[in-house]
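Project standup — Tuesday

K.O.: blocked on the structure for the chain from last sprint. Re-posting the sequence here as requested.
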Amino acid sequence: MEIHLEDLEEKTRFDVKLQIELYNLATKVMNSKRKREFEEYLEERIEKIRKILNKEHGKIYEGNTLIFSF
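H.V.: unblocked you, prediction finished:
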């Protein structure tokens, strides 16, 4: 399912983008010694996105750019 940020309410759009940024940041700073903790954190971010959007799977677009897939 395609989800376009511009079609969402402002608060929902903010919440989704925040979770995506937190996910992306965690992947950049992931520590191999604590990989399991980081993987759990990444899964939590995905679960939050699913809950916010009430969708199990989807592709999130900002304009014509795919920014996240879950």
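K.O.: great, moving the ticket to review. The chain is about 55% helix and 15% strand. The longest strand covers residues 65-69.
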